[in-house]
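step=encode ok
step=design start
structure_in=
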């Protein structure tokens, strides 16, 4: 990666990573104990022999935060991929439904749908992606000058071979970033700017997370622990699963 491109990517990351950290903070501030409890299986936690209310709350909170963070960071990575394509390959954000990037390399026009990780979506979402690719190709081939088209599912991270199935190419990790940038080592280079200000953002987040953890632990103790301090599993299960009147 040359110095000029590095500076552009660093600037993009610095300006846009803030949204990810802001989303984390907002999600944390809006969490409610009742919502966390109803979203999880109390029988599972009982089977895992949780005895400390604090351990139960930590497990609930960490699972919820991790899930939401993967979603918001995935959106950031998709935007980063579009930016990289624009800066390195004369790619552009696609205006076609379900397609994120269009770029031409070695005479092939790639129609790329970007996903953060390979374990994305359900069967209906995969079917919708194939339909979007089929529609895009049908429309574009109405032009005599369109050339070769390659529908592509691009995955931002993961170690797997490039394959063709369901009518489109699946590419990920190093190969995906290589396709976008033309640089085989690009996938390791983008991790550097992601670390800028990470310590600052995460220290502030951990302070607020500790406060939320303490508040929820106290609330859980009042509402779902016996006078002796034990978790009242019957009461917890009733809260999660009892029929509504």
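sequence_out=
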């Amino acid at each position: 990666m040359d110095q000029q491109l590095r500076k552009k990517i660093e600037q993009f990351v610095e300006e846009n990573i803030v949204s990810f950290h802001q989303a984390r903070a907002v999600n944390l501030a809006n969490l409610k104990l009742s919502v966390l409890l109803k979203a999880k299986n109390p029988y599972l936690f009982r089977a895992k022999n949780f005895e400390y209310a604090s351990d139960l709350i930590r497990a609930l909170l960490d699972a919820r935060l991790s899930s939401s963070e993967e979603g918001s960071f995935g959106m950031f990575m998709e935007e980063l991929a579009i930016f990289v394509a624009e800066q390195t390959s004369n790619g552009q954000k696609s205006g076609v439904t379900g397609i994120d990037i269009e770029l031409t390399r070695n005479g092939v026009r790639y129609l790329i749908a970007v996903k953060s990780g390979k374990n994305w979506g359900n069967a209906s979402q995969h079917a919708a992606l194939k339909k979007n690719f089929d529609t895009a190709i049908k429309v574009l081939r109405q032009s005599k000058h369109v050339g070769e088209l390659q529908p592509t599912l691009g995955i931002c991270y993961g170690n797997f071979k490039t394959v063709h199935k369901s009518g489109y190419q699946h590419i990920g990790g190093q190969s995906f970033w290589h396709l976008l940038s033309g640089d085989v080592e690009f996938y390791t280079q983008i991790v550097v700017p992601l670390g800028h200000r990470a310590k600052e953002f995460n220290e502030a987040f951990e302070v607020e997370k500790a406060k939320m953890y303490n508040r929820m632990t106290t609330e859980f103790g009042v509402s779902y622990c016996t006078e002796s301090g034990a978790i009242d599993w019957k009461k917890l299960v009733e809260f999660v699963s009892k029929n509504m009147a």
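step=design ok
step=annotate ok -> The domain at 1-88+194-245 is CATH 1.10.3250 (type ii restriction endonuclease, domain 1).
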